[in-house]
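Provenance and format

Records in this collection were gathered into a single text stream. Each protein contributes a sequence line and a token line. The two records reproduced below are adjacent in the stream.
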Amino acid sequence: MNIPKDPYMLLSFVNTKLRDDFDSLGSFCDSYNLDKQEIEEKLQSVGYKYIPQENQFKA
């Protein structure tokens, strides 16, 4: 799957998918065969961190 390259578009995409379709970042990444660490690093570069208890990225 092609995911947005822009970190802010990626943030919106991932948080929407987590809210609507997945119970964790791991299950999202497994489903789309994505590298979890790569996504976390890209979003951390713009100040966002994954909060497992809330199942979303937050600043």
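Adjacent record:
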Amino acid sequence: MKNLLLFAVLLPVVSTSFSQSAQRSQYPKNITPAAKPEDVAFSAERLGRIDAMLDEYIKNQQIPGAVIYLVRDGKVAYHKAFGYSDVDKKTALKKDDIFRIASQSKAITSLAVMMLWEEGRFLLDEPVSKYIPEFKSPKVLKTFNAADSSFTAEPAKSEITIRQLLTHSSGIDYAAIGSTEFKSIYAKAKIPSGIGNDKDVLADKMKALGQLPLKHNPGERWTYGLNHDVLGYLVEVWSKMTFDKFLKTRIFDPLGMKDTYFYLPADRHARLVTLHQDKEGKVVTMKANAYDGANPEYPKLSGTYFSGGAGLSSTVEDYAKFLQMFLNKGEYNGVRLLSRKTVELIMTDQLPVLDNEYGLAFGLETQKNDERSIFSTGTFSWGGAFNTHYWADPKERLIGLVYTNIYATQHWQIGERFRTLTYSAIAD
């Protein structure tokens, strides 16, 4: 997972105001269906290659099923479901089924943070310890004893800033999936990964995390970690609301994201796809726990832990609305959540010195890494641990999502193959 950038366009001073106004007027207020793919300059024949790819994956028992969603110019060009939501029961997958989106939660958390930044609740380069005192005077791991997970640490060169949390440059590692040392240190301190940790409380665990060592000095390099769980707790501190309530009232309800939750209401349980896994070259339903002991059915629980890094479940349609809001420079469904300038800041490469293209919410396609893929410069993207993938391309005005739910899969490349087939079907 990588890549992201600034896509502000330089225009002549005389025409700037008119051009920006005209551009804003062209943003789709809502996502609506296209009568046929050709209406948004896709080749229906070439899009058929996506069908063939997914049929092959399912026939070879490499994935249980998948839902595909393509939006161009605010119109749905392709929305299909393939395979099963439960391979044991042979339950057909439906287009509106709900998936565990894991790390796709991070971008939503970043949106919440930047909405509060716009309200003046904090500054990006302020220390986290100003709002969570337990993060004061951080230390960096020096030695680690694998026998008992004991360690020594030395003072860090600086405090962690909120910007560093947003860009995974804080030095915080990941529970359950991070480095060997920190998986052990976090497990001993009972710091969760955020997936299926329903009985914990965010404030308690983040305060405990603040007293543990860092993997490296803040700002020194990029390390994927529990940063967005800390940010979720900061949203609670700044807003005086529980994180789940903030997301629902300030983001999900205004955007019309009616199926996105940490813990699903009972009337949506039947639409949650079963979590699967690879076993001896075949896809089977997952019986064992995932990551740090997570019950695969965790979205159906009544939990109290709201993980900003990994806890949400959603549909392709809901997440597309979230992405379209960014393509619209902060507005969707007649509601403005961010200003155009804040969206431009979010889409600016924040880590040019660290050689990792990442903005304040997504991985970015920049001038520096553009030769590696077919994405347009300015495209933002990420994915989730259970093999969900998305991107949004401002230049092509294009959103793509492919969702399946499979644990520890060998077939992660489905996202890249889907991307290739999508761009090769553009016909304008």
